[in-house]
DNA sequence: GGCAGAATGAAAACCGTTGTCAAAACCGCC
DNA sequence: GGCGGTTTTGACAACGGTTTTCATTCTGCC
C-alpha cells in the first residue's frame, strides 16, 4: 500500500520549497486525507533513503524535505522569507571543498552548502509595503 | 558569578572539535564540577550570542559548539571520525554564494558551508588497523 | 475465503532543549 | 559583619519533533 507514500510525495512535488513532516501532515489532513503522522514520517524516510527527496535541518532542529528536480548533486538557494527554492550547481564549490580537504590531508571529502537570501518578489513586497 | 560559564568555555577552548551540551556537561561533572545541565545550556547560549563560540547542528539535530580561534567569518573542515576540526577561509565560496544569489535575483545573501572528511591520522589508523 | 507479510496509526517512549521557580551566591552599602 | 536587591544556579517539569511499539487493517496470492 503505497498510496499514502505517494500522497506525501505529491505534496512535496507540488511544493516550491522545503516542507516539514508536520507541515505535510497538516496539509494532507486539511485536504481530507486519512493519514497518520507516523506514516508521513515513514514515507519521508523511505523517500529520503531512495534519494527521491532532499533533507535539510533547519536552525531549530526540524527536518525539512524537498523533491528536487535533479537526482544529481546540487545545492539550494532558499528565500528566507517565502521559502522559494532554486537548485543551483556549484562546480567551483565542489573543487574548492576538495582542494581545502586535500590541503589539510583530509580524504573522502563531502560537504554541505546552502545559500539563503531574500528573493526578488519578497524584496519588492517588502519595499512596497 | 561567571565561574560556571568560564568552566564551560574552558572545556570548549581545550577541545579540538565541536562538542555537544550534554557532552560538556558530562565532562564537567566527571571532573568533579558542581554544575547543572541547565547552566551549561545557558552558558553556551550566552557564549554563542556573544559570538565567542560557533554553533552547528548535527545531522541528528543536536547542537554542537566550538570555540573558534578567529572571530571573523570562516568555515569548518571536520573529520567525521575523530571530530578534529580545522578552520578554513573560503573567499572563493563567499564570492560564489553572492554571485549565485544575485544571478537569481536574491539579496541579503548568507550561506552555510561545512566540509567533512577523514583526517590524515584517522586515515592511517584505518589503513593500519 | 483464508493466509502471510507489509502497511498503518494512536499512543507512548525518547531525547535534546527550554521554562519554572525557589534556593543560593553575589553585590554595593551601611 | 550584617542587610536588602539583584543575579545565578540547578532540580524538575514541560515542550516539541521524532521514533518506537503494537494491535489492527490492508494487500497480494492461493
Automatic annotation (TrEMBL), chains A, B:
Quick one: signal sequence residues?
A: none
What cofactor(s) does the depicted protein rely on? Mn(2+); Fe(2+); Zn(2+)
Swiss-Prot/TrEMBL GO biological process terms: negative regulation of DNA-templated transcription; regulation of secondary metabolite biosynthetic process
Cofactor binding note from Swiss-Prot or TrEMBL: Binds 1 Mn(2+) or Fe(2+) ion per subunit. Binds 1 zinc ion per subunit.
Q: Where does Zn(2+) bind?
A: 79, 82, 119, 122
Recorded hits in CDD domains, A to Z, give:
Fur_like
Recorded superkingdom:
Bacteria
Question: Might you report a single GO cellular component term?
Answer: cytosol
Q: GO: which molecular function terms? A: DNA-binding transcription factor activity; transcription cis-regulatory region binding; zinc ion binding
Q: Which residues bind Fe cation?
A: 73, 94, 111
Q: Where in the cell does this protein reside? A: Cytoplasm
The answer to whether the entry has keyword Repressor is yes
Q: Keywords assigned by UniProt?
A: Cytoplasm, DNA-binding, Iron, Metal-binding, Repressor, Transcription, Transcription regulation, Zinc
Family designation: Belongs to the Fur family.
On assembly, the entry states: Homodimer.
The cross-references to PANTHER family, in alphabetical order and at most eight, read: FERRIC UPTAKE REGULATION PROTEIN (PTHR33202:SF2), ZINC UPTAKE REGULATION PROTEIN (PTHR33202)
Q: What is this protein called?
A: Transcriptional repressor
Amino acid at each position: 500500500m503505497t498510496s499514502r507514500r505517494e500522497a506525501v510525495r505529491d505534496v512535496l512535488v507540488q511544493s516550491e520549497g522545503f516542507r516539514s513532516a508536520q507541515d505535510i501532515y497538516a496539509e494532507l489532513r486539511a485536504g481530507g486525507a486519512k493519514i497518520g503522522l507516523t506514516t508521513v514520517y515513514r514515507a519521508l524516510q523511505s523517500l529520503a533513503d531512495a534519494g527521491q527527496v532532499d533533507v535539510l535541518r533547519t536552525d531549530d532542529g526540524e527536518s525539512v524535505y524537498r523533491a528536487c528536480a535533479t537526482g544529481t548533486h546540487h545545492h539550494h538557494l532558499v528565500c528566507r522569507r517565502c521559502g522559494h527554492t532554486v537548485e543551483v550547481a556549484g562546480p567551483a564549490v565542489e573543487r574548492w571543498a576538495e582542494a581545502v580537504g586535500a590541503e589539510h590531508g583530509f580524504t573522502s571529502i563531502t560537504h554541505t552548502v546552502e545559500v539563503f537570501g531574500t528573493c526578488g518578489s519578497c524584496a519588492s513586497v517588502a519595499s512596497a509595503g
